[in-house]
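Sorry to interrupt, but I need a hand with the structure work. Could you write out one complete protein record for me, on any chain you like? Could you add the entry underneath, on a fresh line?
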Amino acid sequence: MLRKLQNASGIQKHLFCALLSTLCMLMATGITSVCFYLFRHLLCCTMVFFLFVILVSCNTFDPLCSILCAVFSALWLELKVIYPSLGVPFSLQNALADALCAASIMTLISLFIFRLAKKAALTSVTEKQLEAAEIEKARANLLRAIPHDLRSPLTGIIGNSLTYLENQDTLTEDEKTEIVRNIHESSTWLGQMVENLLTVTRVSKKDLTLDTRLEYVDEVAAEALQKVEKAHRDCIIRASVPEKPVMIPMDPVLIEQVIINLLENALLHSGVNAPIDFIAADHPGFVSFTVRDYGNGIPKNMQEHLFDGTAHAHMTSGENKGMGIGLMICRTIVTAHRGTITGRSLTDGAEFTFKLPKRKEEDHEP
């Protein structure tokens, strides 16, 4: 509520604080009067006023309202509850002294609570600002990665097609076939890049609501593996999925995209023609998906920039295909599913793992 008040005008803030304080004190006096009349319970009346003073302190912008409510509570409890319940003769001096002591204590408590509530509101605003800055940084990294990652397939398509047009009379059939194959591979790669860009546009929307529903892990994995094997007919992927059917909430199209990106990343960057391992494992509370290759591993200068969209800036000149967009898309999708993704270099290859929770976040709420 404090965050909403920060966007209101000064008069609106003070009016709201005054109305809320008045309403809370009226409710407190009414409740304590009934309780005292029916039960003559001193502790119950005291706790009611403490509760409403805390409520005012947590939801008002003006600390003066908290102080006034604390003073009023102390005076009301002292004059209307404590003295009548004890049945002692009324003494103005003693009553004022007791009320002053009680008011001081409740004032300190209310100011402390007010300070905590205000700090929590400011912390929330700061977190939103940091989140906005992180989103802007990711957007900037993506814009820097796009030209680099799109330039290579376009260059390959243009270069090979020009070679074919200029030398088609002198090229052998094998050379023509190789050129057409190169154009096809570059076109496929370009299509994947465009698909990734469309995906990141979708998952970057502020009002995004993922189309999550319970899906079988093995079915989503099988669909992704089939598409990769169709695009890379010479690849060997050793897949392992849980023996028992496992269902988790996910957007199947997006998770399929993550699996495809990780598999193609392993095929393109491992540097060797070795089998790729894909392992889906069932764990208490989550399911993990691991893609492991047995190639050259991840260069040290790239390990800290795998998912931030700047991996292309840390490649050597011999690396013509960047990982800038693909892995960034993976992290964006997995994070949107409340999951985590990691990548590490091994002594004989590289391994990428992402984990998805078995239950939606709202399912954990009481």
The two ends are 22 Å apart (CA to CA). Residues 127 and 302 are 28 Å apart (CA to CA). The chain has nine helices and seven strands. Residues 316-320, 362-366 have pLDDT under 50 and may be disordered.
